[in-house]
């Protein structure tokens, strides 16, 4: 089946809904063909990374978040989410670096709190 721009949008929105409904594996299944057809789609990759995280596929989440950061180094959310992924995997030293980058890029209270700047 050929993918149309409309199909991509429908699948992306449906994947968002599945993630909200706590079905991250279903979201990944919808996003995989979209990303295969459009590997440059950073929004879809970010959504898939979140779905991987919520389904405890931490290595896959890490790789997706890293790819987003390579493309958008100033994406504070991607740094924060990568930090949460690394933290969940027990890699707190690596996580701290990304928490701090997220807080430096966007000083939202939750990012600043997670960065723990006072413990430098």
Automatic annotation (TrEMBL):
SMART domains for this protein: TPR (SM00028)
Keywords: Repeat, TPR repeat
Gene3D superfamilies tied to this protein: Tetratricopeptide repeat domain (1.25.40.10)
Keyword Glycosyltransferase: no
Domain of life: Bacteria
Name this protein carries in UniProt: Tetratricopeptide repeat protein
Source organism per UniProt: Streptomyces chumphonensis
Native organism taxonomy: Bacteria, Bacillati, Actinomycetota, Actinomycetes, Kitasatosporales
